[in-house]
Amino acid sequence: PSDWYQHDITINKRRQYVVDVFGRTDDERVVCVRIVGFKPYFYSLKPITDDAMTSKQVFKHDVMAGFADLKSKRVWKVECDTLNAFHEAIRAAKDTRGQQLYESSLPPFMRMFHERHLSPASPIRVSYTQELDIPTDKDTEEPKYHVEAYYEAEVQNVESAPGDTIPQLVASYDLEMYSASGLFPQASKDPIIQIGISYRWTDDLLTPVARTVYVNGTVDPSDEPETTFVSCVNESEMLLKFAKDIKTNNPDIMCGYNTFGFDDAYIEDRCKRLGILSEMELARCPTVGKEDGRFITRFAESKKFELASGKYDLRFLVLRGRLGLDLLLNMRREHSLDSFKLDNVASVFLRDKVVSYKDGRVYTNSTRGLRNGNYVKFDLVGHTTDPYREGHKFVVSDVQSKSFRIDGAPDLFYDLSDKQLKSLEWTFTKDDVEPAELFRLHRGSSADRARIAKYCIQDCDLVLTLMAKLDTLVNARGMADVCKVPMEYVLRRGQGIKIFSAVVYYAAQR
Questions:
Q1: Is 67 strand, coil or helix?
Q2: For a Cys-Cys bond, which of 63, 171, 411, 464 suits 251, CB 3.0-4.6 Å?
Q3: Rounded Cα–Cα distance for residues 438 and 444 (Å)
Q4: Residue 295 pLDDT > 50, yes or no?
Q5: pLDDT at residue 267 greater than cutoff 60
């Protein structure tokens, strides 16, 4: 599954709680399964009655609220027909009745994970489904869900399938902006000039499937056969082609570097400025929110995020049906580095020891993450790290599993002693383009803009390579399955909800 979405719908003129799970089948089809038949519930010390809920008395161990020597306690299980009734009941019980509630802060769909012993980030199996027509918009009659098939299943027919492996499609995207003043770009006046997007499958995050850069202006063709540079008349056309690309390839996961801190907000602001926000469909289904008392389709949402390294204001795209991931946020949570610039992160994690050097070929323990055309530099690593030849960048070619060739440097390492050669390491580096140079290139020829595009797609690939090297998705999936929460909660939420869900689940197994 790439996303779980709990909400209320009307079935036979009656509101009902459902959970939509988006994902991919073993034959690579994108589907949505609507799970019905589960009723949200919580526990209270006294009965609560209403038309939209029922209460029944049950025995339950005291839920770690004070000390009761783990004795059974008679409480009331309050079941609700809808998600709205669930929240209203909790609010009313706390505000007006002073009720003692138990486990009321656990989202209902997580309760469903617990009861059905589902691993939310691993494949699930549905024993019986009913295929339905994909829901359409009443006005336009266009499909509201961008999926290939749409099913309905009773909750008792859903079970975990931990032994199955289903690859998911990952899209990494990156923006390049132009500033006429030469200062840091501002969305209110500075346009997006290029958008790069690279696709890879989760079972092979080192091999690109497709690589495209959309360019505002003319551009020369790419010199790499698997990469396409697409010329666009203006910024609006470029953004809409990017959205169409996402809709066509339909990735399960969308990721980038500092996308939650900058790129996503910039996309929304530029789309508002250009008047095309309503045409930018990046999610698999619309998410409706409320603003000024009216219902609107949300494109992005804001959130404050607190880590040990500081507090961050995030603004990210609402990608209902997909998983959104910002690798920078994950790096700040998991690692302590001097600098979190993408180039520095790559140099720290994409490196290995130089075993030997002969006839222009570098032999090493592993070249995982390196591709032909990448750049490397060499470091002498001891008590300190000394860049070789002041950090000069070398182009890599003919990459093998344990070796690669450095072209145009026949005298490489001749000036190093045997002792220094033993401490030599290669490290990945980017072919950086300085902001002032980037702005100048954009104003230049189609060949100049092709150089920017090559730099842009390089960043997209680098994010995916780092995710493969660090097992970002594997680790997030493991944490999600253990804590019984969706992967989105692992990547974008704090520790509290994960711990609470795990405690409720494992305590219930006693």
A1: coil
A2: 171
A3: 10
A4: no
A5: yes
Q: Which fold has domain 3-165?
A: DNA Polymerase; Chain A, domain 1 (3.30.342)
Q: In this structure, which CATH number among 3.40.50.300, 2.60.40.1250, 3.40.50.2000, 3.30.420.10 belongs to the domain 169-336?
A: 3.30.420.10
Q: What is the pLDDT of residue 408?
A: 78
The burial class, CB within 10 Å (0-12 / 13-18 / 19+), for 192 is: buried
Instruction: Quote the CA–CA distance of 267 and 246 in Å, as a whole number.
Output: 14
Q: Which residues contact 312 (CB under 8 A, 6 or more apart)?
A: 261, 304, 305, 306, 329, 332
Return the bridge partners of 143, or none: 136
Kindly give, in sequence order, each residue whose CB lies less than 8 Å from that of residue 67, ignoring residues fewer than 6 positions away: none
To the nearest 10°, report the CA torsion of 13, 15, 16, 17: 150
Residues in the chain: 510
Query: Shortest CA distance to 404 belongs to which of 419, 380, 426, 423?
Result: 426
pTM exceeding the 0.85 threshold for the entire prediction: yes
DSSP string, 216-265: EB--PPPSSTTEEEEEESSHHHHHHHHHHHHHHH--SEEEESSIIIIIHH
